[in-house]
Amino acid sequence: MYNKEKNKGEREKEMNEEKALVLIESEEKQEPEAGAVHPMATLLKESGGVESLQRGQILEGTIVYSSPSEILIDVGAKSEGIVGRREMSRLDADFLSELNVGDSILTYVLVPEDKNGNIILSLTRAQIEKDWRKAERLFKDQEIFESTVAGYNKGGLIARLGQVRGFVPASQIVTRKNEDLSSEEFKAQLVGETLQLKIIELDRSRNRLILSERAAVRDWRRQQKEKLLDDLHEGAVRTGIVSSLCDFGAFVDLGDADGLVHLSEISWRRVKHPSQVLKVGQEVEVYILKVDRERKRIGLSLKRLEPDPWTLVDDLYELDQLVEGTITKLLKFGAFARLQGSDIEGLIHISELSQEHITHPKEVVQEGQVLTLRIIKIESDRRRMGLSLKRVDSAEYIEQDWTSGYIEEEEAAPPQDEAIDSDSPEAPEETIEVEAASEEETIEQEAAPPQDEAIDSDSPKAPEETIKVEEASE
After folding, report:
1. pLDDT tens digits along 316-332
2. pTM score
3. Residue 210's CB: how many other CB atoms inside 10 A?
4. How far apart are CA 349 and CA 357, in angstroms?
5. Residue 396 and residue 327 in one domain
6. 165-168: long-range contacts at Cβ-Cβ below 8 A with a sequence spacing of 24 or more?
7. Rounded distance, CA 261 to CA 213, Å?
8. Residues of 290-325 as b/e, b for ≥16 C-beta within 10 angstroms?
9. d(CA 204, CA 26)
10. What radius of gyration, in Å, describes the C-alpha atoms of the chain?
11. Structural domain that includes position 447
């Protein structure tokens, strides 16, 4: 008899629960705002009585009993609330396995009191309410959270915030390896992937939760950049990846933020565009040149990690020295040339390009041309070097160039009388015969002294063959 009454009571509970669920589903559109409390309940509470419950109310309770068929929860009412079998079937098995007697849990009031005086509760609806509250907090605070992609449709991706379904439009997905964001194949590959997301629109009345990966990544990088700015200091060396190139320099990804290597800081030599030295994706070591925390900017340098060539100028070069140089740039007032085997550039002023008057350097030289030049000024402290093209063959430097070995022997042979000087090695017979045969031409070209001076007693004694030739010519 007892068992029959007990079974009858359980059946009545389940019937009441089902009726409550049907009633809720039919009245969802008229459902009062969650958490709303009837004025009478407030009056009872103030008078010390038991607070009456309202449907849709969210309560925190304590589990007092748990079995595979029902869970009893103390919510502070005159009787425990019941989570029935049907409600439990909707719950995740892992979630149920973690529930223990004594645990605090959030509940949703389905039926404040059935005909048997029982309070019917829902945990799934409580979890949804809890997740909506979390979503509202995240939206208000503009916080970033992680979520796993649960699916996709024509317009974008489906991601969940707990039990609440969110939507990530294709326009809010971060591009990956130039993939077509609208392609079904691309979106299918993202299912199961964890994304960083941010709520950009929330409307509970329309059950609308719009998420953005793009906004989350942008904010995340901004946060990381602020942390990086606090850690960085001028003079430090970091490894990064070249992320982009532009006319004024190159951006390098330092992991949490990008820094700029200005065009003038890429190399000690003149660079017209970063692509002459760098390429996107290249790993480089950079020198932290400047950290502007107020403007959130990081200045980098590549050339500061290499020896400054100007510190070696005084050791490698000297005034009047002849050097090889490549014309790198033409300007109205002159041309710049880079010394061979060095990053040093000097200026050839327009007045030093030619003996004749010219109006522009392009009349004499062109970019890329390799020339022999003479150093006419060195100011290493001011990082300046003056070069000359017109003085390369100037007569005033012949003796110096000969001494320095800049002129080849056949290009600067001494006069004939010096060539046969007594202090010089004896000339071969073939040379003497050739000289004798062209004596008259040699005298005209080199302005040799008169014969009586050539054989003067103060002069070194000439070889007999030379004297005979002179007598014959008389």
Report:
1. 898 988 999 999 999 99
2. 0.48
3. 16
4. 12
5. yes
6. 165/207, 165/209, 166/197, 166/199, 166/209, 166/210, 166/211, 167/209, 167/210, 167/211, 168/195, 168/197, 168/210, 168/211, 168/212, 168/213
7. 29
8. ebeeeeeebbbbbbeeeeebbeebeeebeebbbbeb
9. 18
10. 47
11. 415-473
